[in-house]
Design a protein that fits this description.
The protein has 138 residues and is α+β, with helices and mostly antiparallel strands. The protein has 2 helices and 7 strands, in the order H-H-E-E-E-E-E-E-E. Strand 4 and strand 5 (106-107) form a beta hairpin.
Amino acid sequence: MVKSVWLIALCLLVATPAAAQIRPIPSARVNPNITVDPQVRTEGQIAQLRAKVASLQIQLTTLQAQLKDLGAKTVTYQCRDQHTASNSRGATSDCGVYLCDPVQGLCKTQCSTSADCISGTTCDQQTGICVYPSNHSG
């Protein structure tokens, strides 16, 4: 019988903390009269904005580096004169019987009027090719 009493006492001793853990916790009540100091709220917003600015500055630096890298790979074209096209890497091209297109900076490759051709040639509008007159030797 002494063993039974000890066994019951031991069970009660173990069960008491377990029972205490499963008791319901009273719900927290929000006091509607509590106000947040506007300065504290503003300082928090300022801190968030500073973090956002720092993040944007990193993104800007990255994009500027990428843009610079792209610029180094980009070749631009321009007309050196009416008969010669050149690019930003120093290469030049004689336009032959065509004029250099000042908008694109490249030699024209076909004509729609004789104004697209060098002096002394005319535009064959059927073929779009600048040609010398038939009495031209060359």
